[in-house]
Write a structure and sequence with these properties.
6 helices, 78% helix, single chain, mainly alpha, elongated, Four Helix Bundle (Hemerythrin (Met), subunit A)
Length: 210
């Protein structure tokens, strides 16, 4: 774990992100931000369960906690998966242009490199659903954290979509590229507004002193 990207300290990860290195990059950062969004959902849940005031939703919140923990773990794993997917692509691009194997290597590595950001989008979409539920059922004391989580999830979803598009834009086999872009666009269309609504509703409540 210590040698993994997610096993590093926050400072070390940020240093690696800032360095002249191919990984971690935008996809890994998106996965980490999605995991933080899930963690904030869990934080709000932990302050809710066991409280008499929320007894009627206690089991619902416990279910959200279990799901949020799963999504957080998957998103952290996707930090590593994104890095693993990019390294072969970087190697493929380094093959001399006159080598006939270059095109096939680049195309295959490009497809593989899209797997992680699409998975990040799928996981983050589910985190947004959990944040919506926590917004409705979680303790009022932690609603600011739920709002922050929703805004982080929005950023993660958008960022992962950019990582998809950078891989599909030059892919020669257009049907695959169109399919990948359609999935990314579908996730953006279905979940961005929902994440923003949670964040904005929390902010509005805080501004009016709710």
């Amino acid at each position: 774990m210590a040698d993994s990207l997610v096993g590093r300290s926050c400072a070390d990860f940020a240093d690696a992100l800032a360095a002249k290195l191919p990984v971690p990059g935008g996809g890994g950062a998106a996965a980490l931000v999605g995991a933080l969004a899930a963690a904030l959902c869990s934080m709000a849940g932990e302050f809710t369960v066991g409280k008499p005031r929320y007894a009627d939703v206690d089991q619902d919140v416990r279910n959200v906690l279990a799901q949020a923990a799963d999504h957080r773990a998957r998103l952290l794993a996707l930090v590593e998966q994104d890095a693993a997917g990019f390294e072969p692509l970087a190697a493929a691009w380094s093959i001399p242009r006159d080598d006939p194997s270059r095109r096939v290597a680049v195309e295959q590595a490009t497809r593989d490199a899209c797997d992680a950001p699409l998975a990040i989008m799928r996981e983050t979409a589910q985190v947004i659903c959990l944040l919506e539920e926590m917004r409705a059922k979680g303790t009022r004391l932690m609603q600011a954290d739920v709002g922050c989580g929703a805004l982080l999830a929005e950023a993660a979803l958008r960022s992962a979509a950019v990582s998809v598009l950078v891989n599909t834009r030059s892919y020669r086999e257009r049907q695959w590229a169109r399919d990948a872009e359609a999935e990314a666009n579908g996730l953006l269309g279905a979940y961005l507004a929902r994440a923003e609504a949670v964040g904005c509703s929390v902010e509005a409540d805080l501004r009016k002193g709710a």
